[in-house]
Structure prediction request, 789 residues.
Amino acid sequence: MLRAVDLKAVRPYADHLDDGLVQLSFTLPVSYSLAARKAALELAAKMGFEEPEVVHYEQLTDGYTYFVMYGRCAQTIDFTTLQETGFDIEYLGEDEIERFAAEHVGRPIVVVGASTGSDTHSVGIDAMLNLKGYHGHHGLEGYRSFKTYNLGSQVPNGVLLAKAIEVGADAILVSQTVTQQNLHVHNLTELVEMVEAEGKRREMILACGGPRVTNELAKELGYDAGFSKGTYPNHLATFLVRELAARSSAPAPA
Amino acid sequence: MKSKLDLDHGVVAACRQAARQITDDVIKRIDGHTTVSVERSVTRLLGVDGANDLDVPLPNVLVDHVHDGGGLGRGIAHWLGNAMLHTGRTPQQIAEAVSAGELDLLSLASSLEGEHADEGAASNGLGAVTAIQERVASECAQRLQGINARFDERRAMRERLGETPTPLRYVLTATGDVYEDVVHAKAVAQAGGDIVAVIRSTAQSLLDYVPYGPTTEGYGGTFATQANFRIMREAMDEWSEQHGRYVRLSSFCSGLCMSEIAAMGAWEGFDNMVNDALYGILYRDINIVRGLIDQRISRMINGYFGVTINTGEDNYLRTADALEAAPSVTASQFVNYELACASGVPDAQIALGDAFEIDVPVKNGLLYEWAQAQLTRELFPDCPVKYMPPTRHMDGNLFRTHAADTLFNLVTIATGQGIQTIGVPTEGIFTPHIHDRVLGLQNVDYVFNAAHDLGEEIEFKRGGIVQTHAQKVLAGAHELLERIAQTGLLEAIADATFGDVSRKEDEGRGMEGIVETDEDYFNPLTDLMRESTYA
Prediction:
């Protein structure tokens, strides 16, 4: 009879329950040699793999050797503690977002974005907004349900806000890549203050993103959400359509 | 090459005719304009290099100085030539003096005409202008000769060491640090790579200047700078000599500095360049007119110095559906080909873009890919074509990607593409690691060898899936080209004809860098290159 999985001690499965076999591949910056092979084996042992085995290794160029290895993982994970933590965040895919927006918003969602202040990096905002997107995920420009304005980099907060008001933006996106001496915090705070001074804070969703931006930081600074590394345009789009749907179904504040 | 697709030659001829009409119209629309980057490439080819204390490159200092003074409509060469005559300094020394605020090129002009009048050598403005033009044209001719001599040496080296027969394996590196790129380049050369292309940092295409010096920090790539070009070239020349096989280098004439990068690449001995304004226009929102003017001069420089250009049709398939967009790829190839010809690029240096991007679950997807790849070869038999691997539908399952790349490699060898960008299993996960590229090359090796003469053995069933698809794509391209010939290319781009993206003539980045040329505009570089190309 098939043995039951002990969910309190789960380990990798390859061929038999609890064999723990893991495939590894990596390059070491050392010359192709028996010593290199030994180094890979010892490294795997240090990583905690039992019975490590090099199944293939070859020279890439002088001083660099590539390894494919297997090893037995001795560690286990208590899966029972993880099932209850609401670990899975459900992002919608592109088609689902389009359907959701059509159903719950029913008009193009206007989004204005920029990399603000002195920041010359448009890579983040381009990844989110431009059609080309990032890693094969379209930016919002490629969605039927979004109308986007990407103002590019080095945009003063005032210019960004003026454009957002001009086109009746539902959301403003700010990207901040340069974070030396907390420059991003200053830039981000200034925008919130300007939006509030214009009396537009309730009308617009404010979101920011960047390698050093977190959702916690964004909320602290007065934004509705913050996005960090690993964010794809559909993550942002999921947030925007859900937030807009929630706002349009909620009674207007008195 | 015997046609395997039973194409209607009348339709092919009509496509070419429409593409020529579109090209003539584009040239009419951009004639009478130059751009700040075109003018900067003139200064670069006159030997201006370096940057000031604020890291502003001297070509920018010089061109901005004249542009701000409203004089760029005459061409930077006019003002430089004038200053050379007046001061006896070299273009580099003049740029340094302008940067230091010691020299105002625009206020020098009137004094020159006065002096020459005194000497009687040129008793009117026209005579002075002739003297200026002769001075700067001879400087320019000398520089071009110098670069030509370097190119001849390189061609001799290429012939002496030898290259792999086509398809050439084009491999990227993109570490962000030029010294790490050298390590990756050596590894891919060792695994059979024929062309190494250092991907540029993502932000570079929108910089209206070329950064100066070696760089070790980039995002998703390494900045294209002249110093980085030199470091890569020296390392690859050394590898080529040691291993007896010539490895080519490629970079990117794209973004806002297309023609400047062409000039830098010519000097540093680069063999290939991605050269397609449409990429920047569609995907980086660069103004259409700016892009097309820059592309025209950029291709002229590439063509003149024997550099193979790669166009970017493959990108449309990353943003639009590969089957639906197939006719737009073929149509764009016709137009890109004519635009390259109009810049004097010979067929053997025009590597038109194509890609293997049909979604994986499509039934008979391989047959459609095969039809499209064969079609490109038959339409442009003397062009090398640059065939790109699947990327759009690669989802992080590297083993599936490796399998898809195997089919891609099979189509490449069987249809005899000139250049193949190799597929890498970790496509769509991150910037591939050093061993991922080697694994990709090993797959290429295996398939190219195992199916080496497959193309010679194969004929397609008359009226079968492959022939029918190719004919349908060609018919679609023809319809599209006729429509574009009616409306014009700029309007077609505004109508989202390519890659599902719409860009308008009066929008986009870099527009402020377009300059209307005066009656007496002078550009010795394009004059000399045209002379020799069309002589």
Summary: The interface with chain A takes residues 183, 186-187, 189-191, 202-203, 206-207, 219-220, 282-285, 315, 318-319, 391-395, 428-429, 433-435, 438, 499-501, 509 of chain B (CB under 8 Å). The radius of gyration of chain B is 24 Å. The CA atoms of residues 103 and 439 of chain B lie 56 Å apart. Chain B has a mean pLDDT of 92.
